[in-house]
Amino acid sequence: MGDAYCSDCKRNTEVVFDHAAGDTVCSECGLVLESRSIDETSEWRTFADDSGDHDPNRVGGPVNPLLGDVGLSTVISKGPNGSNGDGSLARLQNRGGDPDRALVIAFKAIANMADRLSLVSTIKDRASEIYKRLEDQKCTRGRNLDPLVAACIYIACRQEGKPRTVKEICSMANGATKKDIGRAKEFIVKQLKVEMGESMEMGTIHAGDYLRRFCSNIGMNHEEIKAVQETVKKSEEFDIRRSPISIAAAIIYMLTQLTDSKKPLRDISIATTVAEGTIKNAYKDLYPHAAKIIPEWYLKDKDLKSLCSPKA
């Protein structure tokens, strides 16, 4: 039973779901409000023990076009107490091996890291596609999986226009260092360049690509975020020879100095994963242009003199 608007009764009424016919019927006038609806729930109830891994649903996971069997292979399930229900079948399965086993492990690692970084599915799929192309070239054997997975995600983020810093990805990688990820990235770019016959498109990074996430980490309100975005856009008119992430961090630091709740440089450094010294150097280059790059509407009730002067 549920509620829905009935066009005959001209009001919300209780409806009855006829699962056999797939119809949604008004309980008062009998009008069929929806026909041939699809039931997306399981084929039958799951009576499996919640603590176990046995699930009698006859539907598997989603198909994966990057796997040889499209993810529709059959696996011999475990019996009671973790033992194999049929030992002979399990032995035959193990003997045959799984040609996609390495890919499945890599795709799971990519999915886990993408979840920890709160990445959208398009980035996860792009990273999986990049790793699949490496696997097709037989160049992943003998290499550490974690740096490769982290590098695939880094490249995928840039290609999808949602870049993440190496530090951010390194913090979620299982023991992979920044140097390891950097080397893996160069290796991937080199291998895919050989495959395509041309340089790999990585996507251009702009300071604005990091703003939303950095401002959210610091706890800035909507007005402050808008001011930071406009300031970054204005700063592109000047020859500021600093990395985009350094410029983003320095502008955030600059605008927080104009508010009542001034943020210390250490907090900005932690939120943006940029070293304090790097933020100071970028701030020093931006400071002479402060009056030109900060929006006028934001400066109405604020004084530029409250900006701390950069030390020489």
Automatic annotation (TrEMBL):
GO terms for biological process: transcription preinitiation complex assembly. It comes from the Eukaryota. The keyword Transcription regulation applies. Residues 2-34 form the TFIIB-type domain. SUPFAM superfamilies: Cyclin-like, Zinc beta-ribbon. Coiled coil: none annotated. Pfam families: TFIIB, Zn_Ribbon_TF. InterPro entries: Cyclin-like_dom (IPR013763), Cyclin-like_sf (IPR036915), TFIIB (IPR000812), TFIIB_cyclin (IPR013150), Znf_TFIIB (IPR013137). Keywords: Metal-binding, Nucleus, Repeat, Transcription, Transcription regulation, Zinc, Zinc-finger. One of its GO terms (molecular function) is TBP-class protein binding. One of its GO terms (cellular component) is transcription preinitiation complex. It is found in: Nucleus. Belongs to the TFIIB family. This is Transcription initiation factor iib-2. It comes from Nicotiana attenuata. The gene is TFIIB2_2.
